[in-house]
C-alpha cells in the first residue's frame, strides 16, 4: 500500500513555478506550496502473498488497485 502525492500534479505545478520565474519573479518571493492531491495505491498481489486481507471499503477508496 502506498499513500503519497500525485506526481503528475506536482510536475504541472512545477511548471507554474518555472513560468513565474521566467516572467521575472524572484524565486525567493514565490511561496512554497505543499502537495494538494494524494493517491492511494494498493497492491493486492503482495497483500495476498503476505496473507493479508484488504477491507472492501479501503479498496473502494483506492485510486489504483494492482492485482
Shape: rod-shaped
User: What share of residues are in beta strands?
Assistant: 15-25%
The chain-level structural class is alpha+beta
Radius of gyration, whole Å: 18 Å
Q: Residue share in helices?
A: 40-55%
Low-confidence stretches: none
DSSP E strands, number: 3
SSE order: EHEHHE
Q: Oligomeric state of the chains?
A: single chain
* Distance between the amino and carboxyl termini: 12 Å
How is the main sheet built?
3 strands, mixed
Number of helices: 3
Strand order of the largest sheet: 1-2-3
The average pLDDT value, as a whole number, equals 95
List the helices and strands and how they pair.
Elements: E1 2-5, H1 7-22, E2 38-43, H2 44-49, H3 56-61, E3 64-66
Parallel strand pairs: 2-3
Antiparallel strand pairs: 1-2
Q: Gist?
A:
It is built from 3 helices and 3 strands. The chain has helices at residues 7-22, 44-49, 56-61, and strands at residues 2-5, 38-43, 64-66.
Report on this structure.
By secondary structure, this protein is of the alpha+beta class. The chain has three helices and three strands. The chain is rod-shaped and about 55 Å long.
Amino acid at each position: 500500500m502506498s499513500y503519497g502525492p500525485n506526481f503528475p500534479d506536482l510536475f504541472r505545478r512545477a511548471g507554474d513555478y518555472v513560468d513565474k520565474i521566467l516572467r521575472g519573479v524572484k524565486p525567493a518571493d514565490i511561496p512554497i506550496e505543499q502537495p494538494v492531491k494524494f493517491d492511494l495505491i494498493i497492491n493486492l498481489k503482495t497483500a495476498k502473498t503476505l496473507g493479508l486481507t484488504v477491507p472492501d471499503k479501503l479498496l473502494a477508496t483506492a485510486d489504483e488497485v494492482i492485482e
